[in-house]
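Practice problem: predict the structure.
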Amino acid sequence: MAGGKETPRQKMIGMMYLVLTALLAMNVSKDILNAFVTINESLIKTNANFDEKNNVTSNAFEIAMLNDERKTKPYYTAAKSIRQKAKDLDKFIIELKSELFQHVEKLPKEVADTLKLARSNSKDNYDIPTHFLIGDDPEKATGKSIELKEKINNFRKDILGLVTASVKKPGAAASFEHGLGLKTDRVYSLFEEMEVSWENNLFYHVPLAAVIAHLSRIQNEIKNCEGDAINLLFNEITASDFKFDTLAAKVVAPSSYILAGNEYTADIFVAAFSTTQNPQVWLGDVDSVTNKIKGTTDSTTVKVSRGIGNYVIKTSSEGLQKYSGLIRVKSPDNTYKSYPFRSEYMVARPAASVSPDKMNVFYIGVDNPVTITAAGVAPSDLNPSMQGGTLRKASGPGQYVVRVSGGAQATVNVGAKINGNNQSMGSFKFRVKRVPDPVAYFGSKKGDDKVSKGELQITPGLTAKLENFDFDLKFDIKSFDITMAVNGGIATESSSSNRLTSAQQTMLRNAKTGSRIFFENVKAMGPDGVMRKIPGVNLKVRN
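Answer:
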């Protein structure tokens, strides 16, 4: 804070800035930003899938209204209100993304409205998004994130109120409330090791690529909440009131973003089914006109139990993977009705991150704290190792300490336990450097400076300080000489510590105005145990 003492939180924020700056300066920065682009595109596709599924449920409500308006209308009215509120909040976030692109990319609104994140030239910009969403003071946000937070809270409250008022099935409303996302409470930040606000955790000093991905994830939660709410309302209507022509194909996967080598799983089912009659799930390319599979049909891969087909396939090739097929259900007249489905998932190369908490290098002879993370992997399942140094576990999740003793480069290898097997998540190379030399000080003076007679009398000796360095390291002065003119000649007195000897004190007491005093041959030792000769201090005595 300007004009005041820096708080611990401000120090931490400053450290975060250094870490982000270091990361963005590394070669891996482009990969990290592109990973956010990939995740954002996957979320956009998932949001489109949610829209389709919610439209299916909405269409089922329309048919139910035709069959029994009196029974259906209260739930239909509540569902329509929920859909409108979700649409309004989703529209606000779409406009928020456009405003971000307008500010960061300096684009007119009509261009920003259609700009895709992949085509952004400023994915790494975090200053403008932070100012736009948070404001100038991270402790008290005043930007657009506050308006977003208020709208999310209102949406959550309104949806919960509509569901609670409409759903009569015992425990259903309470279960919905328990699983309802979109929470904006304060959260514990593992990086900062303290509680921070929802908006600060998501948007403070975060690059544009990550901000857009966060907003897409919030849209995902909105559509998911919308779907859960209207499905819960729809289920309040007795299933026997509807004909089988209201059935619709569903594909639900725990995740559409999969690490290469791992399994992709998905549940494929129809919205309503008989517990005594399993549908058939056929995989293949479906003709949209004839509603039949073209070419080879696979009717054995998807195993069906209690009306739900479970699709499991080992992933290998990276990139977007698509599949489609038919769900065949036997109708009361003993004929089969077919319901087409299509879905997709993204297979990505395993990715991890090793973030040095201080700088983008490892320093010789000192503890270098690092944070190691891997997408989708719990910190307890990480198994890192190191070449060119040693790596030991620290106290916090994903936190480690690196020690190097020499060389020009060190490598951190990250492994992770996934499905019982250790899988490589990547290797990361870092430069190795010696801790820079400290600067010698005589009281408040360094280098070539002027000193008063009073300061000469009260200063006990020399100190050594590391300037513009993020590690809190101590250097000890081990010896130094004082040289100055005495009685027409040049005299030198030595000290074997950091303090003035009695002879040196006498020299300084007798120094006259205009005299030159040279602190020379200064030697200091740091935590690496290496003795260093550092530049001294040259002083001129003033009145």
